[in-house]
Amino acid sequence: MLTRMLRRLLPLAALLALVGCAPADDDTPTPPAATGLTSCSKDQLTTKTAGKLTIGTDDPAYGPWFKDNKPENGEGFESAVAYAVADRLGYAQADVTWVRVPFNTAVAPGPKAFDFDINQFSITDERKKAVDFSGPYYLVRQTVIALKSSKIAGAASVSALQSAKLGAQVGTTSYKAITDLVKPSGQPQVYNTNDDAKKALQNGQIDGLVVDLPTAFYMTAAELEDAVIVGQLPQVGVPEQFGLVLDKGSSLTGCVTQAVDQLRSSGELTRLEQQWLAQVAGARELT
């Protein structure tokens, strides 16, 4: 898995620049509504291929979002979400076709080779000018990482972090998570960039670093030696949101959003997040 990720350092670094820590805010964004729907039954949907659902993602498709670079196996968080959406729309797994589409191509203006694409796309106003988004299927969680030698490497609760020296990038949701959730006994360390904070962690100046989960996966796999994900913190502030990407003005947007909303309200998205991000990937929740 690490080898596959290392092959993709530059594209992944670009991705993290797009999906980096969201600034703290007080206004919770409203997901797009599934309005104007006539029917979301399979026989009423206009897809790239009649009777089939074409789903896009990048190549390689890396963990924990996918497994073994095989999105068709249904394993990994985003593969499982994609098949759950397909099922809500009436498509069996055998009716789903996967295509590989580079990240930047998927969100660029112009016709798409897919019905929807799933690839950790942050929902932004700028991207909405070129593509449609479904409602959010994942709210990015803030995560604590530490060196394996750190006193908090095995922490299992938020309270176990309160005596630790923690750091985060200034003005981010990560910093807000430290001050509002962890409430450490000492003053949190603030850095201009995550690179500065990462160096402080490497040099032993802090016990743990708080970043968003995608950044935590990247740092511990590709940038930091002997580092571990301690765990995910409860939500705080306005989280960054991942959405499915569709062609601008797609007739499927409303129905796909409805499917995602149903998966959220039924608790299925939470279950899949627990299964693939918390249990399999080791990013457990800190209580």
Detailed description of the structure:
InterPro entries: Iontro_rcpt_C (IPR001320), Solute-binding_3/MltF_N (IPR001638). The structure is a single chain. The protein is α/β, with parallel strands linked by helices and about 290 residues long. The chain folds into two domains: about 40-140 and about 240-280, D-Maltodextrin-Binding Protein, domain 2 (3-Layer(aba) Sandwich), CATH 3.40.190; about 140-230, D-Maltodextrin-Binding Protein, domain 2, CATH 3.40.190.10. The protein has helices at about 1-5, 10-20, 75-90, 105, 125-130, 175-180, 195-200, 215-225, 255-265, 270-280; strands at about 55, 95-100, 115, 130-140, 140-145, 165-170, 190, 210, 225-230, 240-245. A five-stranded mixed beta sheet has the order 7-6-8-5-9. A three-stranded parallel beta sheet has the order 2-1-3, with helices on one face. It is elongated and about 60 Å long.
